[in-house]
Amino acid sequence: MKEGQAKPRRLDVVVVGGGFGGMYAIYKFREMGLTVQGIEAGGDLGGVWYWNRYPGARVDLPSIDYSYSFSPEIEQEWNWSEQFAGQPELLRYIDFVATRLDLRRHFQFNTRVTRAAWDEERQLWTVTTDRGEVYESPYCVMATGPLSIPKEPEIAGLARFKGRLLHAAKWPHEPVGLAGRRVGVIGTGSTGIQIVQEVGREAGELFVFQRTPSFTMPMRNVKLEPDYLAEVKRHYAGIREAARNSAVGGTRPQSTRAFFSVTPAQRRSLLEDAWKQGGLAMLGTFSDLLVNEEANETVAEFVRSKIGEVVKDPATAEALKPRGYPIFARRPCIDTEYYETYNLPNVHLVDCLSDPIVEVTEKGVRTEAGEVELDILILATGYDGLTGALTAFEVAGRDGRTVNDKWKEGARSYLGLMMEGFPNLFMTTGPNGPAALANIIRISENDVDWIAALIVHMHEQGLSAAEPTVQAENAWMDIVSALAGRSLITKAKTWWVGTNVKDKPSGLTMFTGGFQKYREHCAAAAADGFRSLAFERRQALADA
User: Fold this and answer.
1) Neighbouring residues of 357: CB distance < 8 A, sequence distance ≥ 6
2) Over the stretch 62-97, which tens digit does the pLDDT of each residue have?
């Protein structure tokens, strides 16, 4: 131990992150009898929902899907109020689970990991925090999530702005007064859309700086009636099984129907039905929308026609219509009267494709056409997604090689769970699994259960370290790459492929084969005795 360094605390597992994945990991490993420590940068549990408190923040998956399945007791005791829960209700659910399972006592809050390093001689991870604490554990689980590191826009002059500058991903905990104010929003992805539709009804004037139009469909949110909730609770087991065996890890219908297998009239009827149903029903109406460009463009044009029907001003409607990339190749958005918001007299669209932002000034935002004066500027500019949380601090594996070194040409791992050269280091919802393409809670439960099974296997066999072989990691990445090559997702510039961050390696590194296929790969690896991993055995254990 170095002079002045805190005395290390020895544990079995350190878990970094206090979102859904980290919470379940702490619970699972604790129930296995392991000593655990969670480290969370926020002031409480909740992950992205702790930080994202902006107006209109809401989950875009049905609440009954976006919830834990490991505890029948929690399923029966908790009641959702809406089909798509808002951020306050999601935090109440997280608080309920944390209290019910007594999870908070295992977490250190308001704390960031500054370094995690593998000690080859002692076969353990040394984890250091910004508070000077040092933890040592054989196993380290990075439950840092795909959306943890907010991305600052590369716009000149942000620091000059004299008004109030707000980032959606770091929203204040206290109320923000918007009434009567001149408000600007930069960014119209999922977060920006939720903010615009909410703020437009409150602000004195709202200026939406749209750099890339997004496809968005009606959410059609509804209150959940007690009789329906009682039905869900009676049938949760079957609902969860269906979710585990679906491509998206949820109960959204998934059709096997190819787009051109039905007549044009039937296709139109199906699209109209999906639009009326709301949510992401349209994405599941046909099976080939992310592989067949002609089918994709037909659906895209259908959505563009809906924009034209809703937005009264023809020029605004045209500017809101996304072009130049496939529908669903960027994160699909769902909304509550987003397009209708542009019919309000106080809401103004600034089309940055025809009138680009030049700089942020002391008074507001200057575009090529002139300056827009603002009292408040909201940045809804997204995240350094998928990999950002794990490259934000130093993670050093065997021989001092860092994750940043390993991923300098793009994220690579085995099953999105482990990396060659980083023994006993695990990820939940890692960048080479389904990640953003499926229900993150189903992925997290699958990943934690797989890690737990491996730890049990290692303890039973007297093994001290495990990592994927080079061959296993390469084989998995070949599968990921082959699937990515068939997907239209690669044709859009988005955080899904890393193009939103300057100098970040670009490419589709997520597994696009569907959640159920991912589960099958994970299950097969475990059933084969984890033969794709290279193990080490302590000499002391070997001699025992």
Assistant:
1) 155, 186, 209, 211, 365, 366, 367
2) 999 999 999 999 999 999 999 999 999 999 999 999
